[in-house]
Design a protein that fits this description.
This protein is of the alpha/beta class. The chain has 15 helices and 13 strands. It has one domain: Alpha-Beta Barrel (TIM Barrel). A hairpin with a 4-residue loop joins strand 5 and strand 6. Helix 6 runs parallel beside helix 7.
Length: 452
């Protein structure tokens, strides 16, 4: 049985996402990220290609680890300035009918009570097409922006996140019964008070005594994404996530993450197949191999190696400005993104990376593999990654906007469809129904245990 590949487009509400410096390319339009028309056009293009969703990254704070200053990030537009991604979703939902939206929201700096309402609102406005990428953050600059001296330790952040999830599950699943909204004009009753329940929570980190402010949305709990690939992150994903976003430069680097994630899901009493695992990749696509290689060569003329090292330093918490360009980077434990450094140090025992190699690698596509070729060649390589690593699909990053995603839709999707590896029509229903064939989270998920 062949596996149908899932594909999300990967973007961020900023001028420079995964390919530092490419905003300067003459064909790149990312400078218009502050215009709603830019996002509406992207949404229409992705839906034309039957793309499953637009996965919106986000960070609070700035990349100021490199050289202990934000100068390199500011100079090169490295994920700064960055705007709120959630505000884009209603506008894109207005011009599409099926495209899903995964939005990254950092739980460490927002109380669960108003956050639960915001996600329910988005679920209503999209008719059930929203997902939440659960992150705990990795930048000390974000914690300082919130008035703290530094971020909480890496594993402790996940302990806090476990408690946070229990609060939002109770609000989404346990406050309003399915038929609580009567909306009966004759009796003048909008909601039956007997079917709206007060949520009480007394956890280690969060306390709550309230009803959820929103009536039940189409999915109730948004589709749950998670992007932590550290040991503690995999444990969290095994308990909570429906879709997991992983990242690494080679098949050898990401395959252990796939195995570990499915093992964690089984250990949590869940079906490992209930986890959809998506890997980051950056395709550079041409009508022919030669055209694709020429594009790649052209793109490299606009990269920023300084921006790449600022990005990688922020991800890892390691100041790469202190290394020589030909020094091999070794693993050291920090409170930033553990898997970012592991993927270039310990994940693939047959490969070491110098600072120079990391700068060149990260400059196009970040930590992801870069797949260069014709539409057919890129399709074949994507199939190879799925078949050899056990992933379910991809979050595909762009290099030049909107060129990268237009090429994906026009040149790669038809090749995958011809090979029976990509859908030819959207499935009906909410985002969860499209991906899993069910409207609600299954009985063995923690959210199901707090339903009314």
């Amino acid at each position: 049985m062949t596996t149908e590949i899932l594909i999300n487009a990967f973007h961020m509400n900023t001028v420079g996402h995964q390919s530092p410096g490419l905003w300067t390319h003459p064909r790149d339009h990312a400078r218009h990220y502050t215009d709603l028309a830019y996002w509406a056009d992207l949404a229409r293009t992705l839906e034309r290609g039957l793309i499953d969703g637009l996965f919106l990254a986000d960070v609070l704070g700035v990349y100021d680890v490199y050289g202990s200053t934000a100068d390199a990030a500011l100079r090169n537009g490295v994920q700064v300035p960055v705007n709120d991604p959630s505000l884009l979703i209603p506008a894109m939902a207005m011009v599409t009918e099926n495209l899903g939206f995964g939005v990254t929201c950092t739980l460490s700096f927002e109380p669960p009570y108003p956050f639960a309402r915001r996600m329910s609102t988005l679920d209503h406005l999209t008719k059930g097409r929203v997902g939440w990428n659960i992150v705990t953050g990795y930048l000390d600059s974000a914690a300082k922006g919130m008035g703290e001296r530094a971020q909480v330790g890496h594993d402790r952040r996940y302990d806090i996140a476990d408690d946070y999830m229990q609060v939002v599950y109770k609000l989404w699943e346990g406050s309003w019964e399915d038929d609580a909204v009567v909306a009966d004009k004759a009796t003048r009753v909008f909601a039956d008070p007997a079917k709206v329940h007060r949520v009480r929570h007394d956890g280690e980190f969060y306390k709550l005594d309230a009803i959820h402010l929103s009536e039940p949305s189409p999915q109730r709990t948004p589709l749950l994404f998670q992007a932590g690939a550290s040991g503690r992150g995999r444990q969290f994903a095994g308990q909570h996530a429906e879709c997991v976003f992983i990242n690494g430069p080679t098949k050898a680097a990401i395959k252990p993450y796939v195995t570990g994630l499915r093992e964690q899901a089984a250990a949590a009493g869940r079906d490992p197949s209930d986890l959809k695992i998506l890997a980051l990749a950056t395709p550079i696509i041409g009508r022919t191999s030669a055209e694709a290689r020429a594009k790649h060569a052209d793109y490299t003329r606009y990269v920023s190696h300084e921006g790449a090292l600022a990005l990688m330093s922020g991800w890892t918490g390691v100041d790469l400005s202190k290394y020589g360009f030909d020094d091999v980077v070794r693993y050291e434990k920090t409170d930033a993104n553990h898997s970012a450094l592991e993927s270039f140090t310990t994940a693939d025992p047959n490969r070491t990376w110098t600072v120079r190699e990391i700068a060149e690698k990260v400059a196009i596509g970040g930590r992801s593999p870069v797949i260069v070729g014709s539409g057919a060649e890129v399709a074949e390589e994507m199939m190879s990654w799925v078949d050899e690593t056990g992933i379910d699909g991809f979050n595909l990053a762009y290099v030049v906007m909107p060129e990268s995603f237009t090429d994906l839709v026009d040149l790669v999707i038809p090749e995958l469809q011809a090979r029976g590896r990509f859908k030819t029509a959207y499935r009906p229903g909410t985002l969860r129904e499209k991906l899993f064939g069910r409207a609600r989270l299954p009985h063995n998920h923690p959210a199901a245990r707090v339903r009314v």
